[in-house]
Amino acid sequence: MNNSNLKQLLAEYSSKRNREIAEANNRKIEIYAKFPRLQEIDDELSSYAIHTAKTILQTNNKNLLNDLDLKKKSLLMEKNEIYKNENIDPSYFYPQFECKLCKDTGYITENYSTKMCNCLKQRIFDIEYNKINSFDITKYSFQDFSSDLYSTEIDKEKYSSSISPKANIEIIKKICDCFVNNFDNPKEKNLLFTGNTGLGKTFLSNCIANELLKKNKTVLYQTAPIMLDSIIEYRLRKINRL
Questions:
Q1: First to last CA, the chain
Q2: What is the pLDDT of residue 14?
Q3: How many whole angstroms separate alpha carbon 202 and alpha carbon 232?
Q4: Buried b / exposed e across 107-133, counting CB within 10 Å, b at 16+?
C-alpha cells in the first residue's frame, strides 16, 4: 500500500466529511430561521441533558430525574409535532455521508477495535490495482441481463453441450446469483469464466463485482495475460485485509 495514496485519500475523506457537516449545519440554520421554536426546543433539550447529567452525579433524587425525563419527552413530542405539521424530514438535518458505515471517516470501530472501512479499501484497490479499468463498473447490473440474446438451438456438435446456449446461460446466471448471495460462506467456491469473445464473461463478471460492492465488499479486478489467446480469466477474491 502506497502511504502517499492513503494520506491523499484520508485528506479527501476529511474534506468530504467536513463539507457534509457544514452543509447539514447550514440546513439547520435555515430551518431555525423559519421555525424559531425548533431552535428553542433544541436549546432546552441540551440544557436538560446537562441538568440530568449533573443530577445523576450529585444526587440520587429519583423524583427530580423523573421530572427531567418527563420534560424531555414533552419537548420531543412538541418537536415531532412541528416536523409533522410542517412536513419536515428529521434526517434533513443530518450530514448525508457517502458511506453510512464509517460516516466518511474511512474507519469503523467495533468492539473497541478499529478497522479500515471497505469503502476506503476499495478506493485503495482502485488506485493501486484496478488502474486498468477504464469503465464504470457500477453501470453493470443483473437487471440488464437477458437470456433472449442467446440461441435456443440445441446442437451438441456445434456448442459442445446437450442444452441450448440460452438454457446454459440461464444456469450460469443462477450460479452467479448463488455466488453473490453466499459470498460470506467460506465453503462457497470461486468462479472461473472461460470462452471465446462475446459470450458475456465480462458482463457477468462486472455484474458480480457491482453486486459485491453494494454489499460493502472490496473487489480486486485482474485479467490474465493476452497469451491465453481469447480466454480471459476473472477472479473475485474475498479480501479481509490489505
A1: 8
A2: 94
A3: 9
A4: ebeeeeeeebbbbbbbbbbbeeebeee
Distances (CA, A) of 75 to 72, 78, 96, 134, 201: 5, 5, 26, 54, 59
Confidence tier at 2 by pLDDT (50, 70, 90): low
Rg (CA), the chain: 27
DSSP state, 36? H
Q: 172: which residues sit within 8 A by CB, 6+ positions away?
A: 204
Q: What's the residue count for the chain? A: 242
- pLDDT of 11 above 70: yes
CA distance 53 to 74: 18
CA angle 67, 59, 47 (to 5 degrees): 50
Question: Each residue of 158-215: pLDDT tens digit?
Answer: 888 899 999 999 999 999 999 999 988 888 888 888 888 888 888 898 899 888 888 8
Is residue 177 within 8 A of residue 204, CB to CB? The reply is no
